[in-house]
Design a protein that fits this description.
The complex is a heterotrimer of chains A (125), B (257) and C (328).
Chain A (H helix, E strand, L loop, with lengths): L7 H6 L17 E8 L7 E8 L2 H13 L6 E6 L31 H13 L1
Chain B lengths: L5 H26 L8 H27 L5 H7 L18 H22 L5 H9 L1 H19 L3 H19 L8 H6 L6 H18 L25 H8 L12
Chain C lengths: L20 H12 L12 H26 L8 H26 L5 H9 L16 H22 L5 H29 L3 H21 L11 H5 L7 H17 L11 E3 L4 E3 L5 H11 L3 H22 L12
Antiparallel strand pairs in C: 1-2
Helix pairs in contact in C: 2-3, 3-6, 4-11, 5-6, 5-7, 5-9, 6-7
Classes of the chains: A alpha+beta (125), B mainly alpha (257), C mainly alpha (328).
Chain lengths: 125, 257, 328
């Protein structure tokens, strides 16, 4: 006996009527790829997610519909997840902006006071 | 193009109807895979292409409507089986994924070339539709080519499956190019160069991919070409498909759904 | 779409004693300050476990949730509905893909999640164990179940786990199409012929109890979720979301002249809360544990899809290429 479904597609599948609780033995997983998407030329590519694919060619093919079917896109990159090197969040403090490095910020250079003072003094003479 | 003569109009309608019916029926078949494709990401890709096909058929039925036929819903959802002009290839059930992929490959190659030829048609409305879908078809053929070459060069099982799918689909696919009643008019008016020309180009183009997929093309001369669809003679699969597709619509064809 | 009423597991002894108390305190401070947690961050084992459970259930609900509406994919009446239903069911599959990815970042491989789904080890939203009997059921599902989904997902998208929030943001954008499509579909039936109207009324009667179940058991009987709320895993109480849904959609249902099959349903103007017949939580439990009208079929379908794909996955698998946990 097979399952008679309300969905004619399922009925055609002739699924067994008795439940099967066994797991599928082997787990065959392809690798994962990270997907980057560019909405228009001139924009940066932005990371939009990941997917499973057996190789890069297939990853591009699958990324196109999963990540670019709804949003405007002119270009896609895929990168094998295992090829991405990342910093550790535990090292987040490495990135903290140091107030003592004002010498390399535009805001570290304020000369108007000095100019105004100079102008005032200059006028006197 | 100047005012169409009666014979030209007939020829044009016949051509558009054939293409549109192929697109509708194959799009419908491929939509049966939605949410059931074995690979999650591929499910999404395959569904998009099925939607595209149905979109193509809609655009073509709209053009038929412009040429005096009923509206697209009426054409697609109320016609009798014998009035459909689709080829047999698109009517077959989806089978396993190997069959569906091979059908997708063989059909979409012909579709891409057909639309490319039509983009230069003297009948401007048709040329415009053909141009509009160029990008979609580029993805469809890229998708089909990639899968074929990869599966054809993979395991013994995948090679055997793809070869057997090809053997099954090839004679059916030849039915795409069943000579039409109006091929001469279409070609002399520069509307469409004809099925024979298309078949030649198609054979060249599938050969390149099938060669890299290490699959052998069945001998065309000994293949039993599946003709009849263009004249309304269909496989046993079309009638049940239409009954299913129109089940809700025909509850009340005059209602707005 | 979405899996409402997640089944959280009651922790036996809270979080493990070995968990570094200083790390835990810092973790909780970060969450309280509205920061997001990223996959490689330290997190309590219990947080990881409950998140996997929740995101996995959500992902399963999308892939299984594609099936009730998929029931009518070959029978949608007319081009407009045919194309829209295809796109909608496709979106559900896309959502499952995004959510499985988010759950994978916590360390559970996708195939393992799918195996747990088809062996009944992990759950999905209960509503999808009910059948879509007629075309009108798909309209009611697309409108009201997706409406419920949006309420829940918008809440969850403000949760604490980065990858889940990012997936939900994208999902919510697509759900707004589902909601509009569903409403449009219901409106056409409700304002159509008497036969169409009857179809949609019948479908609403069938789907109302599952819709009331959708947000999960009432807070009174629901598993203790205080820690999960503090960790921003669970973002709103089941009853609050149900109230919000009733507030937004009951008037829209009534304006179409449709009858909701609950004579007690009314808004109490003093409390500002909706009053309704308490949903049958025994049935909810029974169905979630496998005894619903479609449980067996739903799982058999997924099993078949996996089995049918085995040769494809094997064909392209290269032993040298190893599965890696996706980044984010």
């Amino acid at each position: 006996m097979s399952i008679k479904s309300l969905d004619p597609r399922i009925t055609r599948e002739q699924l067994p009527d008795e439940s099967d609780n066994n797991p599928i033995k082997e787990l065959h997983q392809w690798q994962t790829y990270e997907v980057f998407h560019q909405s228009k030329k001139g924009d940066r590519h932005i990371h939009v997610g990941s997917l499973h694919a057996p190789n890069a060619e297939m990853a591009i093919l699958l990324a196109k519909e999963q990540y670019a079917r709804r949003y405007k896109c002119v270009n896609l990159w895929v990168v094998k997840t295992s090829d991405v090197f990342i910093t550790d969040y535990d090292d987040e403090d490495m990135f903290e902006a140091n107030q003592e490095k004002m010498y390399r910020e535009a805001g570290g250079y304020k000369v108007m006071d000095r100019i105004n003072k100079f102008k005032t003094e200059h006028k006197k003479n | 193009m100047k005012q169409l003569t009666e014979i030209q109009t007939k020829a044009l309608k016949d051509l558009i109807c054939r293409i549109a019916d192929d697109e509708l029926i194959l799009g419908h078949r491929n939509s049966e895979w939605t949410a059931l494709v074995p690979i999650l990401e591929e499910d999404i890709a395959f569904s998009s292409m099925a939607q595209d096909k149905i979109g193509h058929s809609l655009a073509l039925y709209q053009l038929l409507n412009k040429l005096g036929e009923p509206d697209p819903d009426a054409i697609a959802f109320t016609r009798k089986e014998k009035d459909f002009k689709c080829c047999h290839l698109v009517e077959y059930p989806i089978g396993d994924y190997d069959f569906s992929l091979m059908r997708h490959f063989l059909f979409d190659k012909s579709e891409a070339i057909r639309f490319d030829l039509l983009s230069r048609s003297s009948f401007e409305d048709l040329a415009n539709i053909a141009k509009k879908f160029r990008g979609e078809l580029k993805y469809h053929t890229m998708h089909a080519d990639t899968w074929l070459v990869q599966l054809g060069n993979a395991t013994e099982e995948s090679k055997a499956r793809m070869q057997s799918a090809l053997n099954q689909c090839f004679p059916l696919a030849l039915g795409i190019f069943e000579p039409g009643e109006y091929d001469e008019v279409l070609s002399s008016e520069n509307i469409f160069p004809g099925e024979k020309v298309l078949q030649g180009m198609w054979l060249d183009s599938i050969k390149i991919i099938l060669d890299s997929a290490n699959l052998s093309i069945p001998d065309i001369d000994t293949s039993d070409r599946s003709y009849g669809g263009r004249k309304g003679y269909h496989t046993e699969y079309l009638k049940p498909l239409l009954d299913e597709m129109t089940e809700v619509y025909s509850i009340d064809p005059n209602a707005e759904w | 779409m979405y899996g409402g009423g997640y089944i959280f597991e009651e922790s036996k002894n809270g979080h493990s004693e070995e968990e570094d108390q200083i790390k835990l305190q810092k973790f909780e401070e970060r969450i309280a300050a509205g920061e997001k947690i990223e996959p490689s961050d330290w997190m309590p084992a219990e947080y990881r476990k409950q998140l996997i459970r929740m995101i996995e259930q959500h992902a399963h609900s999308e892939i299984i949730g594609a099936l009730p509406e998929g029931t009518w994919i070959t029978r949608a009446p007319g081009f407009r509905r045919k194309l829209a239903l295809m796109a909608k069911v496709q979106d559900e599959v896309g959502h499952a893909q995004l959510l499985y990815s988010a759950a994978e970042t916590l360390g559970k491989p996708r195939e393992q999640m799918i195996n747990d789904l088809i062996t009944g080890k992990s759950k999905y939203s209960n509503v999808f164990n009910y059948p879509a009997v007629t075309w009108a059921d798909t309209a009611v599902i697309a409108w009201l179940i997706d409406a419920g989904a949006i309420i829940n997902q918008v809440a969850n998208s403000k949760g604490s786990y980065g990858p889940y929030c990012r997936a939900l943001e994208r999902i919510c954008l697509e759900e707004s199409f589902h909601l509009k499509y569903g409403h449009d579909n219901v409106v056409f039936l409700a304002t159509g012929t008497s036969q169409q109207r009857q179809m949609v009324q019948d479908a609403l009667i069938r789907w109302w109890p599952p819709i009331m179940h959708f947000f999960g058991p009432s807070d009174k009987i629901s598993v203790h979720t205080e820690t999960l709320m503090r960790w921003k895993v669970k973002m709103a109480s089941n009853d609050d979301m149900r109230q919000k849904f009733l507030d937004m959609y009951v008037p829209k249902i009534w304006e179409l002249g449709l009858t909701i099959p609950d004579p007690k349903l009314k808004k109490n103007n003093e409390t500002g809360k909706w009053e309704y017949t308490e949903p049958d939580w025994e049935e909810f439990k029974r169905v979630i544990n496998g005894d619903g009208p479609c449980n067996k079929e739903r799982l058999a379908v997924r099993r078949r899809a996996e089995e049918k794909g085995e040769w494809v996955r094997n064909a392209l698998l290269r032993p040298s290429e190893k599965y890696t946990v996706p980044l984010s």
